[in-house]
Each structure stands twice: as structure tokens, then as C-alpha cells.
């Protein structure tokens, strides 16, 4: 890609489990990129400066295209940087990789994992953090509520460890797809369990440890060993202030050119329709508005801002809603 650091700017904060997926991927690929560190809670003026209301982390810009949601980000990095991609190569492996993505993100495995955050965590004494997470998840974050949810969440996560131990890793393979290095399938499967393993107090070690799940914990240790070596060899990310990151994006070229509207899409939307897009699972109170310039089975794209200096913001279809807006009582369709 054109521009410094491959034209990539990653917006994230250090302990975001979703952002770690992207950081791992970039490190394992050795892809040079820039980063713009964000606060773990709102407001995030660096993103407001781009015209984006979407509140979840991470976001990744490649040129003047900005990608929301780690699922879409990983897919785009595979497509736009194909040399040395980590994705599966045949239909059966692609199915495993996709099912692992769905299992972790969409079926609720990570949602259950997040309910194992210890109620003794210092951040939970910060009213600003608690209020922010209640806005994000639309559920209470009181210590009493966390403790009440813990047994069910623990049962679900224990089942997840057992699934990995008794199926994908049961034959002693090093990596999910029997490869000689970690692939995207490993990232999709491991990120939730690695995050919990590193979160002090999240897992009761009498129930979930290397004693009960030796193959899973050996896999986690093996993955982190490869990751640390990859990080040591990869280019160190360039750190950008918000205003510098914004100017770099606004002054760049678009990374993708061939955008269009799927005429068979059930929504029946047209090129240039004024719409709003927002996630429906978390962060659903934060809507982006713009003109629809791309719509496929997997992705929706808005042009946000002026024609000359605007950006294109990309969203996955799964877990997101698109609503037509009206101006002066008339739809812009």
C-alpha cells in the first residue's frame, strides 16, 4: 500500500482483547503500521475528528478507508496484503476458521468470558469506567451483578476449554489446522482463552488450569512463544497523535476502488442513499450517518464527510443494522 507504514493507522487501547487480535495478526505477518492510542473509555476525540461515532475498539484505517470491527479488519488485511496471508487455503479449513470466528464472537463465548472479570478489579471502583461499560454493553456493571453472573459464565467457559481439549487439539497437533505455524484459525480460537488466562483472578485454577486442560494450556504457551519472537522481529509501530493520524488519513488515497451496491440485497437500497449504521449487540447507542456507497453480503460502506476530504467507513453486515434516513420528509433512496 502507498504511504508510510503501509498506509495503516490502528486505533486501539492496550488492554482491549479485540484489538489484541489485530495486533497479533500484524506482528505474525511482520506488517509495518502506525498506531493512535485511545482512552479505554469515551470520549475519543481522535475518532470524532474523523467524523466517526462508532465507539468500539479497534478501528483500522488503510489510506482513507476505515474499517470497523476486528472480524472485518482481519478479513481486509488478508485481502489487501495477500503475500504471506495467514488465512486457510482450502474450503474445509476455511469452514473451520469461519466457524471459530462465529463461535468466539457471535455465539457468545467472549461475552461469557467478559462476565468473568473479577469484581475486585480496581477499575470497577471507577464510576466513569463502570458507566462507560454500561453504555457499551447495555447491562449493569455493578459488583453484585458481576458476582451473580459468574457461575453461569464459568460453566460456559469451562465448556469452551473442554471443547478445544477434546476436539481440535485432541490429537496433539501444534496448531489448529495442522500447519507449521499459527494461522488465522489459531487467532480466532485462542484469543478469548488467552485473555482470560492472563486476567488475574478470572479463572479458578482448581477448575481451569493445565492440570485439567493440558493441551489447551500448552497451545496457549506455544502461541505466545511464537508471538513474542514475531514481535521482536516485526517493525515497531509508529505512534501518532490524533491530529497527525487524522491528517495522514485525510491526505491519503482510498485503499479500495471497486465499490458498488448489491442489487439483489433484501434491503433494496440504492447508491448514495442517506443511511445510519450501528451495531446491535454492543455500542448500539452510537450511530454513524453517511451516504451508502458500498453494500455486499458481508459489508456496508458509508462515505462520511465532504466529497473532497471525506472518508469511507466499512462495517460488517453481521451484527449491524442499516436504516434509511429521510430529509424533509422524503427518503433519499
UniProtKB/TrEMBL annotation:
Gene3D superfamilies: 1.20.1050.10, 3.40.30.110. It comes from Exophiala bonariae. PROSITE patterns: GST_CTER, GST_NTER. This is GST N-terminal domain-containing protein. Residues 6-85 form the GST N-terminal domain. GO terms for cellular component: cytoplasm. InterPro entries: DUF7962, Glutathione-S-Trfase_C-like, Glutathione-S-Trfase_C_sf, Glutathione_S-Trfase_N, GST_Omega/HSP26, Thioredoxin-like_sf. Residues 90-244 form the GST C-terminal domain. PANTHER family: GLUTATHIONE S-TRANSFERASE OMEGA, PTHR43968.
